[in-house]
Amino acid sequence: MNIKVKTTMAFTVFGMIYTVGAIMMPMASVGNPIAPKIFPLILGIGLTILGSLYTAKEYKHWKEEQASEKMKKINPEEQEIERKTNKLIIFTALAGIAYAVIFEHVGYIISTSLFIGIIMFAINGRKKWMTNLGVAVIFSVAVYMIFSNLLAIPLPKIPFLEI
Amino acid sequence: MMEIIQNLMHGFSVALTPANLMWVTLGGVLGTIVGMLPGLGPATGVAVLLPLTFTMGPTAALITMCGIYYGAMFGGSRSSILINTPGDGAALAATFDGYPMATNGRAEAALAMSAVASLIGGVIAAVMMTFIATPVSMFALKFGPAEYFLLMIAALSMTASMSKGNVLGGFVSMFVGLIIATVGLDAQSGVPRFTFGIMELQQGIDFLILIIGIYALGEVFKSFKSINQGQKKIQKKFGKIWFTKDDWKRCLWPILRSTPLGFIIGALPGAGGTMASLMAYNNEKNMSKNPDDFGKGEIIGLAAPEAANNAASVGALIPMMTLGIPGSGTTAVMMGALLMLGLQPGPMLFVQHPDIAWGLIASMFIGNIVLAIVNIPLAGVLVRVLAIPPKILYPIVLGLAFIGTYAIGNSTMDFYLLVIFGVMGLFMSKANVPTAPMILGVIVGGTMEQSFRQALTLADGKLGIFVGSPLAISLIVLTVGSIIFPIIKQIFKKKELVRA
Fold first, then answer.
1. Which residues of B are less than 8 Å from A47 in CB distance?
2. What is the pLDDT of residues B216-239, one digit of tens each?
3. What gap in Å lies between CA B277 and CA B315, rounded to an integer?
4. pLDDT, tens only, B482-500
5. What's the whole-number average pLDDT of chain A?
6. A85 and chain B in contact, CB less than 8 A
7. Which of B11, B67, B332, B348 might form a disulfide with B358, Cβ 3.0–4.6 angstroms?
């Protein structure tokens, strides 16, 4: 199955789960007890129906494509780029999650330098480590200064050092 | 009439202080820089730079935002002209003739004409807006909850059905958006909905996080594919950035024609700048005596879409400001900005905060003029940003996206949502599902449910209230029409294909 069918299927399943969630939601203790449920129920059922229609349409389209053997010949070079891109995306997303975990514990400057730094290493290569480190640290410090001094928005400080 | 002019003058007096002028210039320069980055348009520009305005007063914040907004639009066409890479959809048409002009050695004329056409388009559209805003908001004040609910349905279904060739995808996207909006404590009964026991989710999901996720993260993810390709060479030395008298004579009419066209298309929900600029381009091509020159560096082919694009960006603010319903991603971000300042866009904005509403309209005039002044002489300096390799720029954009998210809610919980939305945006674009209806759904979802329930309470639970007034019925007709129209169009197309 291609990505279109998979994505539309994911939406349909999400619609179903959401509908179940809406049914299981607690009743309201004030006013009409089912009032908070009505709108989510309409949405859940609506998404499930539309999602199924959409999946059916994309599935049919995919089958037709296969039958007519219109499928593009897979170019190994393109496949390689695709694989690299996906790896980079997954890496960045995981880095984002790690960033969220350490953000408040080690402070803005350290967590951000690490976050930008490893992404720079991932896309800019190891050879240019000076640039990578420079960009990561300068960005973190500059943003920190702008936010805490100019904009008066407090960011998490480095523990013990309190900067 | 006199009252409108008085209001506008008041708006100018609010917006035209030295400090505000400095902010709009700064916002414009920053916006231009962000807008020049491939894939990052005005929506991302405003979303990422939003935290800069948090500590300003509402007027200063708004005028800065206008600067960022127009700056990003100007920036988008810079990269279209010089490296054939549009910042966003609306700047696409500028690549058709702008880039050929640059390769023909007329980059200076292209840059100047794009700025002047944008300026004229923007200013004329702002004049139109000045006179239309009040009547529309007065009319909107007559809406009851049932009509308001139906109006939102109409706007949503129009946006969804505008999704080119993928109406079903548009509606799925819209439902997902409305579903995201239901997360949080129910405003009327206090029942927690889909919060999974997480404290931070009780207040609901801030749609700015969705926007930053989709536009900033999602776009960076998408551009990872081209990050290893060699960088395009860009021109760094320029002569005098201006165009000839003959260029001006040929372009004036196309600019004046394209402006109202862009304005009207921009005001329709879902249509926006991309459609406006493409229509203006095709229009001029059809009207031209030498249509074959288009695409080879015809300056009219650059001037017309640029004027239409800027006019559309002003037109798009009408439904957002007067009805509280944004019609596009960019206006959605602007609305988010207003909400952050504690201002609810909608008809009451003009009644309760006339200084803000008119200050914003005045800012549009000022923003356009300042941007043209900044962009023409400084174009040579600003475009140097394009010489910074994307390998360095994209990590910085990621950093800005996260800090912007943190500044909204001071919570790292939002970082997880940001990553989820970024990945979701990537998959949606891979599967060709439009994201604009989803964003719109998240924004209007809460109000939509409120009006729905209010209407039902008023009518003792009878659904008849939704067909109870001529206005309600016409809104239903509009909704049904917007759903049926693309289906009929498709059937006709198929029949034609069969015949051929």
1. 172, 175-176, 179
2. 888 888 888 877 665 566 677 777
3. 13
4. 888 877 877 887 777 777 6
5. 88
6. yes
7. B11
Tally of structural domains, chain B:
1
ipTM over 0.90 threshold: yes
Among B364, B255, B260, B254, CA closest to B312: B260
Query: Of A29, A47, A67, which closes a domain?
Result: A67
Question: Is 70 exceeded by the pLDDT of residue A70?
Answer: no
Both structure tokens of A41: 């129920």
A93 versus B457: which is more confidently predicted? A93
Question: Could B395 and A135 be called an inter-chain contact, meaning their C-beta atoms sit closer than 8 Å?
Answer: yes
Determine the structural domain holding residue A35 and report its residue range.
Answer: 3-67
Domain-ending residue, one of A45, A67, A89? A67
Question: pLDDT value at position A55?
Answer: 93
Average pLDDT over residues B283-300: 90
Q: Are B296 and B282 in contact (CB under 8 A)?
A: no
* In contact, B121 and B259? CB cutoff 8 Å: yes
Output the CA–CA distances (angstroms, integers) from residue B219 to B4, B130, B427, in the order listed: 41, 34, 11
Q: Does B194 touch chain A (CB under 8 A)?
A: yes
Judge whether A163 lies within some domain: no
Spell out which residues of chain A touch residue B184, defining contact as CB-CB under 8 Å.
none
Q: What is the pLDDT of residue B350?
A: 83
Judged by CB atoms closer than 8 Å, whether chains meet at B171 and A50 is answered as yes
CA-nearest of B356, B323, B351, B350 to B338 is B356
Task: Tell me if B29 is assigned to some domain.
Answer: yes
Q: Does B381 touch chain A (CB under 8 A)?
A: no
The confidence score (pLDDT) of residue B197 equals: 83
Task: Tokens for A33, please give them.
Answer: 């007890």
Is B188 in Cβ contact with A31 (below 8 Å)? Answer: yes
pTM higher than 0.95:
no
Predicted confidence at residue A71, as pLDDT, reads 58
- The number of distinct structural domains making up chain A is 2
**Chain B residues 454-483 with CB within 8 Å of chain A:** 461
Instruction: Evaluate whether residue B90 is within a structural domain.
Output: yes
Judged against a pLDDT cut of 70, whether residue B198 lies above it is answered with yes
What is the distance between the alpha carbons of residues B144 and B157, in angstroms, rounded to a whole number?
Answer: 20
User: Is the domain of A94 the same as that of A122?
Assistant: yes
Answer yes or no: are the C-beta atoms of B389 and B226 closer than 8 Å. no
Using an 8 Å CB-CB cutoff, list chain B residues near A152: 55
Judged by a CB distance cut-off of 8 A, whether residue A97 touches chain B is: yes
B470 CB-contact burial (10 Å; exposed 0-12 / middle 13-18 / buried 19+): exposed
Q: Which residues of B touch A145 (CB under 8 A)?
A: none
**Whole-number pLDDT of residue B15:** 82
What's the confidence (pLDDT) of residue A44?
Answer: 95
Say if residues B219 and B238 touch (Cβ distance below 8 Å). Answer: no
Q: In sequence order, what DSSP letters do the residues of B347-404 get, joined into one string?
A: HHHHHH-HHHHHHHHHHHHHHHHHHHHHHHHHHHHHGGGGGS-HHHHHHHHHHHHHHH
B431:A3 CB<8 A: yes
Residues of A in contact with B228 (CB under 8 A): 81, 84
Residue B39 has a pLDDT of: 66
Contact across the interface for B172 and A51, Cβ inside 8 Å: yes
Which candidate, A51, A18, A4, places its Cα nearest to that of B193? A18
Could A30 and B190 be called an inter-chain contact, meaning their C-beta atoms sit closer than 8 Å?
Answer: yes
A130 has a chain B CB within 8 A of its CB:
no
Indicate if the pLDDT at residue B358 is higher than 80: yes
